[in-house]
Design goal:
Elements: E1 64-69, E2 75-77, E3 84-88, H1 93-103, E4 107-112, H2 132-135, E5 141-145, H3 151-162, E6 166-169, H4 173-179, H5 183-189, E7 194-197, H6 214-220, H7 223-226, H8 228-231, H9 241-264, E8 268-271, H10 274-286
Parallel strand pairs: 3-4, 3-6, 4-5, 6-7, 7-8
Antiparallel strand pairs: 1-2
Helix pairs in contact: 1-9, 9-10
Amino acid sequence: DVADLEVLEAAAEGFAIPLDAEVLDVLDHRTPWTGCGFAGQAACIAARNPVDNALARAEKRRLVWPGRRGTEGREMAGPLEGVRVVELTSVVLGPWACQILADMGADVVKIEAPAGDSNRQLGAFRHPGMAALYLTCNRNKRSIVLDVKQPEAKQAVLDLVKNADVFVHNNRPQVMTKLGLDYEALRAVNPRIIYCGSYGYARKGPYGAKGALDDSIQSISGIAMLNKLVLGEPRYLPTVVADKTTAITVVYGVLAALYHRERTGQGQEIEVPMFETMVSFVMAEHLWGMTFEPPL
């Protein structure tokens, strides 16, 4: 029997419905792929069941847009109802951005490596593989395990993209080219796809091939130095502000691209680099006299 992909949905007390699936059936509910386990397999589509099996059989639910009611007083579906997002992301930036899209009603399918998103093991947890930071960045999604380095798994991603509206990733651009999952490859199977890559630095800039983390971006964008004004020495903010600010930028970039496609029928590629995003964020008020030529 074809096992359903369960909704990964964190409840108020930090609980979640886990994934318990051995096949993928999210394209149009017609063509499943057979699962093949974890170790050494080609299209690694595998069961992940960290919580009781009974909970994994929960009925799929669609989030209603909180606080929104139609003219007849009924709760409304989210504004992105009917939009499918495929995400190949990990840690905070990409997952948090796609969670916002899911909260707006999009059908988000998260692709995870065989080891799972690293945040599954980070911090407090009630159940193995379901740590707090993973839950707070991945609610309202469906999840599948794919080793995208393997040809069959890559083809599974392309098959997903055929019927998707948006693809989001936060890998370095050269990694996606090497995997055969760059914009040109995805546009070939779906010309209307909106392809959003969030990188550490602008792809065509001098640091375009480098990766980045929140703390390195806080440092190079000047955020850590701002704390010297009040603390006497540079300090990181005690929150992943670069990840989350860039994630919000991803969201409104995707929303603008969806609106553009609605008007023109055209898909597009979006680039959202962390460094340039955070420099823009900081310099809105700190560029000051350097705004002018010559500087004041």
